[in-house]
Design brief:
Order of helices and strands of chain A: HHHEHEHEHEEHEHEHHEHEHEHEE
Largest sheet of chain A: 6 strands, parallel
Radius of gyration of chain A: 26 Å
Number of helices of chain A: 13
Structural class of chain A: alpha/beta
CATH superfamily of the largest domain in chain A: Response regulator
Strand order of the largest sheet of chain A: 2-1-3-4-5-11
Helix content of chain A: 40-55%
CATH architecture of the largest domain in chain A: 3-Layer(aba) Sandwich
Number of domains of chain A: 3
Oligomer: homodimer
CATH topology of the largest domain in chain A: Rossmann fold
CATH class of the largest domain in chain A: Alpha Beta
Number of strands of chain A: 12
Shape of chain A: elongated
DNA sequence: TTGAAAGCGTTACCAC
DNA sequence: GTGGTAACGCTTTCAA
């Protein structure tokens, strides 16, 4: 778009950006708008941000494993809230690119802010991003990273909640399912650690139970259940709980009589099981709050990095424990 | 980055891009590389694509409703395959922006290709994208759009498969669950239509059953089940099937004796229900094939738009039907 | 009120 | 072999 309406490029820019500093005559405005519509003109984001020296793009790495409804809703809310603040959310999809290499790839897009779920970002990566112009880097993980704002997802508290509940219900030999699927370690490890902490100094014992999300794996685990001598199991989340519970029931193991089973995430499916599944309800951070944190950080990049602990965990006791 | 290593910007460009047309002395190369590393230099994608006149960005709108494991896996595979072809996949997150307005927002990023799941793109939108430089526009929906390549997701075939199966099992009064959640119409409507087609000209009847994904809604539907007089129900997908099946069982309705229940998508949870859930297995398009389609279209934008019907549907008969 | 021109970071092209 | 220069599309400053 340029001399299409018989005016200068500057005039076009003024009209389309509603620049209030200069006054353009109504007829000219109309001519520009009509020409723009007719030509199907769309501004060039790259040129704009190149000239401006910054963009309004908030970048997140696209998750590379199936995400549940919890995260979907969180993401939706976040996108909505950031959209209201005039940011554009972009999920960068690159599989197999990790750590600092990923940070460099993100930095090429010169996002104004970067949101990183998971612990795949080091101090080095934060430096690269900041030097490339990112005014805010926020991590969502169990541990904070130097130089970045942190939303500490306290998965450890989820495990603690589960462990304390099972202990209070009189269980003493407690299994903890740890998914074998990759990409889940950063969630499962702290959940296991939380159970351990809840039971430290008591007479209860904790047994780690690696489990792949397959019927056959669950059946194998259930087959040796009696010899394991467990009276309770915290199954990482509701889906693994459903998988294991079914396998245990197929082995005629009474739930919760012989073994208590609890999950986490409070998904719909837990309410549909029989016995109804006890679960740890997890409260993800509010998308609106996170959007405001990002906006604050962008407006004031010099401020100290904030660290918030989120992910409220509360027990939902139903019938399986 | 510019005169940091005491060389010209052009030389920097040559070194970092390994341009073979010109020969740069080894010492110079080293100096440039060192300076780049020291400064944490990262190339500016916007400047690059501005200069080049095109990018390697493939844009997809981020889904604004919870997606299942099927779609997650498809997306993962697609990102991997496009990554191998040196494209960068970006999911554009904007909630509440629809149709041509969304197309214009996407066009601002000047992606080389746009992949649109769902039927939210009109001929107008395709024109805007193409005029802005997109060399390939591919839709994944039930209907094709003029000017765009189309992967026809044949949800109608899913419904047909379900209807034919239930008829063959002797069922004649067939309910079809239609989710009330928004965003799912483009999947649920063709699935319902497929059931209708399968039973057209037979003595079977089809009853549409709107259902929200909530226990209470399912309970209300189950409470009036006997008066509905249905002997089978196709529940949109496995999750709705689980919801409804549980409600029916709570009403002491025998499955499959009194009512056959089938789902779709062949999720793990169907195998864990008792009775085991019959389901329509759905084959999403191969991410690799789609990546190749995109690449072909990008290399040869003039070629006629391709239309492929994907989404193979096949019945998985278990115990609930 | 409008237009001309500079400059953002890159890279292709041409002189040196 | 190397380095200057122009141009990509846009915004902004300054001059007309």
């Amino acid at each position: 778009m340029a001399r299409l309406a018989g005016v200068s490029r500057a005039t076009v820019s003024y009209v389309l950006n509603n620049t209030s500093a200069v006054r353009i005559s109504e007829p000219t405005r109309r001519r520009v708008r009509e020409a723009a519509k007719e030509l199907g003109y769309v501004p060039h984001a790259a040129a704009r941000s190149l000239r401006a020296g910054h963009s309004r793009m908030v970048l997140m790495p696209a998750p590379d494993f199936p995400v549940g409804p919890l995260y979907s809703r969180f993401l939706d809310e976040l996108q909505w809230a950031l959209g209201r603040l005039d940011y554009t959310v972009v999920q960068y999809g690159a599989v197999g690119v990790r750590g600092d290499e990923a940070a460099r790839a993100w930095a090429e897009l010169r996002p104004v802010a970067v949101l990183v779920p998971g612990s795949d970002l080091g101090t080095k990566g934060v430096t690269v991003l900041k030097r490339s112009g990112a005014r805010a880097v926020v991590t969502l993980a169990s541990e904070s990273v130097e130089g970045a704002h942190a939303l500490l997802l306290d998965h450890e508290a989820v495990g603690h909640c589960a462990g304390a509940h099972l202990y209070a219900r009189g269980r003493r030999r407690i299994g903890v399912v740890v998914p074998e699927e990759s990409g889940l370690e950063s969630f499962s490890a702290p959940r296991l650690a939380g159970v351990r902490r809840a039971l430290r100094g008591t007479d209860a014992t904790v047994v780690e139970l690696p489990l792949a999300y397959e019927e056959s794996a669950a059946a194998r685990l259930a087959a040796r259940w009696r010899e394991l001598g467990l009276d309770a199991v915290f199954a990482y989340n509701d889906e693994y709980a459903m998988l294991l519970m079914r396998a245990l029931q197929d082995e005629d193991i009474d739930i919760p009589g012989h073994t208590a089973v609890i999950g986490a995430d409070d998904l719909m499916l837990g309410r549909l099981l029989r016995p109804r599944l006890s679960t740890v309800h997890v409260e993800l951070p509010s998308g609106r709050d996170l959007a405001e944190l990002v906006d604050r950080a962008v407006r004031n990049p010099g401020a100290a990095t904030e660290t918030h602990t989120v992910l409220g965990a509360s027990m939902v006791h139903r019938e399986s424990s």
